[in-house]
Amino acid sequence: MSAPANRLDTTFARLKNEGRIGLFPYLTAGFPDRESCARLLEVMAEAGVDGFELGIPFSDPLADGVTMQRASARALEQGVTLADAFTLVAGLRQKRPDIPVVMMSYVNPLMAYGFDRLCADAARIGVDGFIVPDLSVEEATELRAQAVRRGLYFVYMLAPTSNDSRMKMVGASAGGFVYCVALVGTTGARRDLSPELAPFLQRTRAAVSVPLVVGFGISTPEHVAGLVGQADGAIVSSAIADLIERTPPAQVEEAVGRFVGELRAATTGATAAAR
Known about the structure:
Number of domains: 1
CATH class: Alpha Beta
Strand content: 5-15%
Structural class: alpha/beta
């Protein structure tokens, strides 16, 4: 009997048939707190997201801007761990068995947990892959092998500074999708998409056969709509965390659901202004 398809594969096939790109919001596990985080995942699922990137809190998140650094610090202050992130996914799976979840973590927590145990537990609970910003393609061999053994993907990252040789190296072993960093710098909401993004995605598309998902600075429905025809998905992180931070707690779920709904509507290429 063949292994079941990874949820990412199923989702991107569905998106292609629907003629739109995917929306994959990022939320740090345990932010703003454990209970609220679990509820917000369900709120965003109700708003129509196509999958989640769930961040593992870490003390030195080198790829993250100040917003996500604060989110990680706030989760760490509450003692949130990788095991807590697994608990969040397990809870989500009870209601949402088909929605993809990719965990984003720096390598230290994963090494401390143990790659073999990590991938075994992830597959059992219902995680679909890992993104590890500080683990290069040359250094990812062991984790990728453990993941592939259990039907999980190791998601590589490429940036506008990646040369053609690096892109071909990633393209040769990429699975699930490739995370395309939209700008040179750390995460954080931006006003406009970088003018370097379109040529970067064209170069990447020539070297990579799996879907391309864009993150870093994607923060408005207009940004999401602008990716239609260029990429296969969008990751929105800091804009959601900023919204959570500035909204009174009693209003957070409503505000996040509304904002994510606007982002979801833009995945066809239309925005509220255009409609």
